[in-house]
Design goal:
This protein has 130 residues and is of the alpha+beta class. The protein has three helices and eight strands. A three-stranded antiparallel sheet has the order 1-2-3. The termini are far apart.
Length: 130
């Protein structure tokens, strides 16, 4: 298993940050040292990699090391995984995992059920029949 290379630096605001070179592409994700420590504690030997959605937006994920272990998006580990929300990057950069760049928004995946609950799903299916 390939290990991620790390770079340690300080932000212009004086906070310590870690750059994680991803295993599947030559790009680096940046996050605060305290968040990196928390993720590393939960997934100590897991490789970090880049994946994209249907629109081509990049997301950093960490994969468990056991057989059948699921992938987890690092942004959700940092921002918190709240039901029926998605995490957006304020600056649009999926490699900027600093907590100050992450924002929860209602919905996820564009699914009407997630955006507005079951009532929105019922309304959208009724509208489709008309």
């Amino acid at each position: 298993m390939k290990r991620n290379e790390l770079t340690f630096a300080t932000d212009p605001d004086g906070r310590k940050v870690v750059g994680v070179l991803l295993t599947n592409r030559p790009v680096t994700a940046w996050l605060y040292l305290e968040d990196f420590t928390r993720v590393l504690k939960a997934y100590p030997h897991s490789p970090w990699s880049l994946t994209t959605n249907e629109q081509g937006r990049p997301y950093v994920r960490v994969r468990g090391t056991g057989k059948g272990s699921p992938s987890v998006y690092v942004a959700r580990l940092i921002a918190g995984a709240y039901d029926r929300t998605s995490v957006q990057f304020r600056d649009g950069d999926g490699l900027n995992l600093r907590r100050t760049n992450l924002n929860h928004v209602p919905g996820g995946g564009g699914c009407p059920k997630r955006i507005g609950g079951r009532a929105a799903l019922r309304i959208s299916t009724e509208a489709a029949r008309v």
